[in-house]
Amino acid sequence: MAKRGLSRIIYLAVLATIDPTLHEAAIVDGANKLKRMWYIDLPGLLPTAVVLLVLQTGRVLNISFEKIYLMQNPINIRVSEVISTYVYKVGLLSPVLDFSYATAIGLLQGVVSLLLIISVNRLARRLSGHGIW
Predict the structure, then answer these.
(1) In a domain, 55, yes or no
(2) How far is residue 86's CA from residue 131's CA, in Å, rounded to a whole number?
(3) CA spacing 20 to 30 A to 37: which of 66, 82, 89, 131?
(4) At 63, phi and psi to the nearest 5?
(5) What is the residue range of 44's domain?
């Protein structure tokens, strides 16, 4: 939750770049606040929202290893296992150190993360016309 602060700052910065004369013209034309948000603010925020969506999607599989590992205990070990803690346990804590298996799991995580980012970017480009590449 604390990592979302940067996204909020970016959204506020983009809102500050929207030309205030557009809002003034809309007020003169009789548009209410909801219509000004829908037709002026949202189209201005859309490219930034797409970029932030793709960037946040890349972080979905890369959950912080340290936080999860420190909070694991024998009671919640089965339900709190994520890919990064599993790779650590297989590669460094198992009786038979299986470095190649741990490396393969880490590589698979990277490939799945890349495919997820590419699919979200294509979906965003198809829906909004904006994408990272």
Answers:
(1) no
(2) 33
(3) 131
(4) -65, 145
(5) 1-49
Handedness of CA 102, 105, 109, 110 (dihedral sign): positive
Q: Using the Cα atoms of residue 50, residue 55, residue 61 and residue 67 in order, give the sign of their dihedral.
A: negative
User: Is residue 84 helix, strand or coil?
Assistant: helix
Question: How many CB atoms are located within 10 Å of the residue 76 CB?
Answer: 10
**pTM of the predicted model as reported, rounded to 2 decimal places:** 0.70
CB 69 within 8 A of CB 57: no
Domain count, the chain: 2
Task: For residue range 42-61, list pLDDT tens digits in order.
Answer: 999 988 988 888 888 877 77
93-121 pLDDT, tens digit each: 989 889 999 999 999 998 998 899 899 88
Domain shared by 67 and 88, yes or no: yes
Question: How distant is the alpha carbon of residue 8 from its chain centre?
Answer: 13
- Cβ within 8 Å of residue 103, ≥6 positions away: 91
Average pLDDT over the chain reads: 89
